[in-house]
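Sample intake sheet
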Amino acid sequence: MKTRRTSRSSFPAGQSQKGVLALCLAAMASIPVLAQQPQSASPVVLDRVVAVVNNQAILASDLDTEMRLAVLDPGRVGRCALTPQRALQQLISRALIEQQVRQEDIDATEPTQEEVAARLGEIRKELPACVRQNCASEDGWKTFLASHDLTPEGVESYLRHRLEVLAFIELRFRQGISISHEEIETYYHDTLVPQYAAGEKIPPLDQVAPRIAEILLQQKVNVLFSGWLDNLRKQGEIEVLDPALEANEAPAKQGAGAQ
């Protein structure tokens, strides 16, 4: 990975349209403020670029959204809170993968609306954090979204990108990998069931077996996938513009389960 430190006030040549648009919006917003307030007033910053991945900007708002959406990731259950540094590494990995998807132009990875709706239904019925707030009901789902500062549109976009990346990874790396019924049962009894508090309704094995099989598949695929992603990082141009967000540990191995 080619990484360079850059001050917040400078931006790389060829910066993506998204980053340029954010800068233009900030400049436009400052015009009326400066006209009405003394020159000593501090400028209002609407957003800022925190990293650039092969000329694709990652904004501070993207980082904030990634941290809020972490509540929907079943792989984070029982783990420590997502830090800004690790969240940025996830975004960098996702950008590299999505760039590769576009480069290879694999239409089969684009999820249908039905697939997105099905995944959303699974989350609302099975994710322990959702079960506690009765997300299966509309009122419970609205309460859950509000409590985590999320929107239905944001969640749907997150799931759509997650499914697209998962499909791409499976096409590239899952050949020859199989999940046995014994592995599914072991995960159900040893990992999923302990996540529910005493008295909470636990979904039956046959209902969650497809989701468990997907999680186990993701874990196996990650072993093959991590080397491929490491190569993308080494070959890519990655700049972290905020020194406070530079990782103090090895980059996250962003596999299928981390998208």
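Comment: Confidence is low (pLDDT under 50) at residues 5-37, 252-259. The CA atoms of residues 219 and 257 lie 7 Å apart.
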